Amino acid sequence: MATTACFIIVSRNDIPIYEAEVGVAAKREDAAQLHQFILHAALDIVQDLAWTTSAMYLKSVDRFNELVVSVLMLLHDSRNDDGIKSFFQDVHELYIKTLLNPLYLPGSRITSSHFDTKVRALARKYL
Amino acid sequence: MDPLMTPLGQMLLEEITPVVMLISTPSVEEASLKNGLSFLQTLTPFCSFDNIDVPVRTASDQPYRLHKFKLRLFYASDVKRPDLKVAKEQLKQVITEAGEKEFPDSSSDLPEINLELTSSSEYQNTPSWFRFLNKELVRVASFSDHEAFDHPVICLLAVSSKDEQPINRFVDFFNTDKLPSLLNDGAMDPKISKHYLLVHDNQDGPADRASRILTEMRNTFGTSDCSLLCINSSVDAPFKHQDNPWASYITDSSSTPSQGLGCFLNTDDIDEIKVLMQDLSSKHIIPNMEQKIRILNQQVSATRKGFKNQIKNLWWRKGKEDGADSLSGPAYNFNSIESQIRVLGDYAFMLRDYELALSNYRLISTDYKIDKAWKRYAGVQEMMGLTYFILDQSRKEAEYCMENAFNTYLKLGSLGQLNATRCGLWWIEMLKARDQYKEAATVYFRICGEDILHSAVMLEQASYCYLLSKPSMLRKYGFHVVLSGEQYKKCDQIKHAIRTYRCALSVFRGTTWSYINDHVHFHIGQWYASLAMYDVAVKHMTEILSCSHQSKTTQELFLGDFLQIVEKTGRTYEVTKLQLPVINISTLRVIYEDFRTFGSPSAANTREGLWRSLEEEMLPSFSAAKTNWLELQSKLMLKKHSQNVCVAGESVKVTIEFENPLQISIPISSVTLVCKYSASTDEVISNEIESSMEKDNKVDHFRNMSSDNSSFMVSEVDLLLGGGETTMIELSVTPKEEGTLEIIGVRWKLSGTIVGFYDFELGQPKKNIKGRKTKDLPNEKFKFMVIKSIPKLQGSIHPLPGKAYAGDLRQLVLELRNPSEFPVKNLKMKISHPRFLIIGKQENVMSEFPACLRKKTDSVQSDVHANPNITYDTVFLFPEGTSVQGETPFLWPLWFRAAVPGDISLCMSIYYEMGDVSSIIKYRILRLHYNVQVLPSLDVSFQICPFRSSLEEFLVRLDVVNKTSSESFQVCQLSSVGHQWEISLVQAPDSIFPSQSLMAGQAISCFFTLKKSRRLPTDGDNMSTLPVRSNARLVPQSIEDIVYDINSAPLINFHHYERLQQEVSYKGDLNTVDFVLISWPFKSSDDAGFSNPSSVMSHHACHFSTASTGPISWLVDGPQTMHHDFSASFCEISMKMHIHNSAGATAFVRIDTLDSAGNGGHMNSVNVVQSATTDNQAGWHDITPVNELKVTSNALETQPGKALSLESASSYIWSGSSSTHLHIEAMSSVEIPLQICVFSPGTYDLSNYALNWKLPYNGQGDSDEKKQHSGQCQGYKYYLTVLQST
């Protein structure tokens, strides 16, 4: 399990629609904004890469010191590529399920507690 | 693009140039200081040549010409590693100065990132001090012993003509150990070529002595190496230069004005200097270098070139390998072959023979690598990279070399830090020149070392690179700007920090990355505060106040800091957009009283439509009332519609929800409405004034309004909002004078220091304006026309319970007060739920409850009976002449009965007219609203079935279930309503209620006989006087005296509404009976109040039909058993049939007596009809008779067949008339004789007859149609046993 992992789903126009700190490390007070900063900055690179590849999984696109950013926006510090890949796959599936909910407006924040618990469970499983 | 024309190329041409070491005597310096310049500075401007045009030949004899050339002059004492500390101090100063200069005006808007501008030129965008800073950083790394291009090529020795023994001085220069360490420690060849310069100050006299010394010098040192320079030729008049050549070279120009520089140097002097320097470079330096290159090249070729040498070299190096393993590698002195190769390379580089330079660098780099002389290796790699770049050959190679060099420097740790920085900067320039900004940014990022300030600058430059890259990476830019800002903060460069964060803000503005926004705003706020710029600080801090996503500690920190800053401003701060607390504009409600007044807030919250429908009948219709309505009334009405009206002295209430998004509680004080008052009622003018005013400065506007409150009063609310709490706040404003009042917004004080405003108008959604056709102003809702004070009634209902059990009956008092001096009249009242609340009579006020309900033996109840249908459904008019005025309250009794369980909202409207006030408002309405929760108590149900034994007597079964959870009740009395019924208990009361009460959840049933009273309704006078047994007491005898009169005032009225409510389809059916069950809450026996129950409950059950089979009921009366001697004759038995018509009209009845034979089929069909019709009857109480009937009809079906099959002889025959026609008057009985003949003894069922009845169809409307008009009834079973008498 990665000690640091911050997972964010970003919709169009850079609006984060879901955020979760899924690492096991004790949350530092300033970590939240640092992670957001890194992830936000990594969007630039994602934006570039998105046009060059059709793959959903972009491996590590950006790094800041020891923290690595993978796409679908996960910030992590472990090397477990396969785990991250399957984590993304499952979360993506979850996300699609959420999208299918007629009451969910695409692009709005995901507030479902069910989604949250599922994501955290997946994080425990894979990361 | 020519690599030399790029910024890096220019930089290299300037920086990597031959160094001239200058040694001068103090008198030379003295002479030049007259011009405000040192001797070095005097010469410097003339050291760069744009078109020197010197022919040079490469090592391989390829001729080319040098055009641009530059020399670098250094004093001998400066030819050493620059002092790191001094350099750092200097850098810091530069940064601080830049910070002051670049510090943004706090009032200015955030910088907009103009992408088009950035694409055009980078240097316009990036601050200029970066370039200077970078240059300084490169310079700091100069004079390293591992590089040769900083080694002086020539030594310029300057001696003044004033000096004693100038020749000796020249010699002395080299004898002393003033020489730089580079030369002394053997890193450099000490046999440096020299040039001797004699400086003559013309102010000291003519140049005779100087020329004499010069000739002497020429003799001593050789003619070519000596020259004379005369300066300060303009003797008296200070010479003004058109464009001062020195100005740009003097960095600390602040100390001396540039105008005075070189004031004694005239044009001749300058020309002389120029010529001197040109000669020096073209005739001495370049040829010298060229020559040296040749020599070195030959040496290098001899020792290293060729296959043999390479093998040898490799072998030799291998042997050395294990020996030296220090970081710096082995020390090379100047005459080692490695140093010489390096010098050769550097010289070739400086003379722009890049091919040669490159080949030498390549040669040496492998050597250094093998030797593990990492610093030298890195240096060579660096130069290789640059050479590749300038040659524009292989980009990859160039980058690879630079990266290699950079990494190697970094590996050296602190030793290589400076060089790494320089190398990085060059690398960056290289990348920039090729538009690889992204890569450049990463290099900047890597340059960041331990030095915080340094890394801050680098990070900022990195961020600019991201901005310049294509496509520009704004987010990265933002991130790195923030990072650099953080570093600036760490080294106390607050202004820089703020500047960078403000840049970041322009990126992050409008995004929903909450943590980022909070971080940026919070820090900017803090830093502004530390600069004592509190206004701006507060502005930024307000942005982060509603940070519900942050943890509690962070929220506390934010709020705490914010308050601290506000405190420091030393005044109550006012902001228009304070986010704390959050105001829910959708919950905004304005409650005002025009002609409608409200008794309680809940009344105001009740739907307007509900009130409208309630008051419909009470309100006078204007158009009909006024004769000249066209003129007067229409105007009034128009005005009324266009603007809200409120009355002076009466408050306008505004309710709005405040929400605290934080987890910590926040104190909020003095929440008030901000209102605007104008004395004129002309709305148009005031609107215009206001709209022009409002646009300007909202805050000022608010401030003005808050101070001026002479014409209205606003209420203040203080509260403490807990974490995550939402509170509804009621605010009010009370105008005192006539005019126009407008509610603009709300203001509040947070923690007693900061004042927030909220403008209702801005917060309101605009869509409802769109829908309107008229051009209504959006603030119409908040604008009021204040009119003169008029009376207002206040009313309340006194002991109205919030909770009651179903059936609870109470006496209430309506109290009306009129505080104003004007009386009100024409009071009317209407109640929404007359089933629950009815209006009593004036005299009831005084009567005691519940004693007044009890039956008084001698009471006169005629008034009730005389008019039992008092105005039930219409408006209640208070007696004529009722006027409410002054302090004395007006009381009126009301009766309350909780009719059905559930939540009931009771609405009352009281209409009144003003006494003698002439106003727009002629009348007002007081609206009272109460909520009552009614709990279920007793569930009462009845079943009625007729007695077979007697006509018009019924058995009533009462089932009572206590549905409460804890309460017990005592069931007191069951009464039947009306006078035609008598009711009596079948059992004794003690046997029904052994515990005297009905416990929670308990169910009982008891039986009563119900008998129709024989008395005819015509003798009405007797009725009241005679004791009517319509009440059955269910309590023990001990409290016999308590009998409630269900015909008394409130009970009978309530009963009326119950009847209306429970009415089904039985309208006009006279055979129904209504029951009233009286009970009270049971108190335990030790309670003294047992015998005097304070409350009474009544349960009404109406419309129980007694008529089961239609309007006709009959009874066959005759003997049951007879003895007859059949041997004598057949037996003739006469019987009687009582027929009763309970219908309201005369019935035609035909009795058909059927003989047993031959009529079975007919009977069957009748049965079918019969059962079908009874099924149509609705209501549960019919079920029993239907079932009963079915049983009989089944029996009938089999009976005739059986009779037929058995024996025809055993049957009987009707001996009377086979068909009898009767007219039975309404509600009357007749008696008919019947006779049968029996021929043998046996038991006979005399049901073989049918009654056909018919009611006249008089077409009285819909209700009649539902009823049956005719029918046929089969006879009852009536068994007659005839025995043979002996």
From TrEMBL, chain A:
GO terms for biological process: endoplasmic reticulum to Golgi vesicle-mediated transport. GO terms for cellular component: cytoplasm. Pfam families: Sedlin_N. Gene3D superfamilies: 3.30.450.70. SUPFAM superfamilies: SNARE-like. InterPro entries: Longin-like_dom_sf (IPR011012), Sedlin (IPR006722). PANTHER family: TRAFFICKING PROTEIN PARTICLE COMPLEX SUBUNIT 2. This is Trafficking protein particle complex subunit 2. It comes from Phaseolus coccineus.
Automatic annotation (TrEMBL), chain B:
Residues 1119-1250 form the TPPC8 C-terminal Ig-like domain. InterPro entries: Ig_TPPC8_1st, Ig_TPPC8_2nd, Ig_TPPC8_C, TPR-like_helical_dom_sf, TRAPP_III_complex_Trs85. Residues 607-753 form the TPPC8 first Ig-like domain. Transmembrane segments: none annotated. Residues 807-926 form the TPPC8 second Ig-like domain. It holds the Pfam family Ig_TPPC8_C. GO terms for cellular component: TRAPPIII protein complex. This is Trafficking protein particle complex subunit 8. It comes from Phaseolus coccineus (Scarlet runner bean).
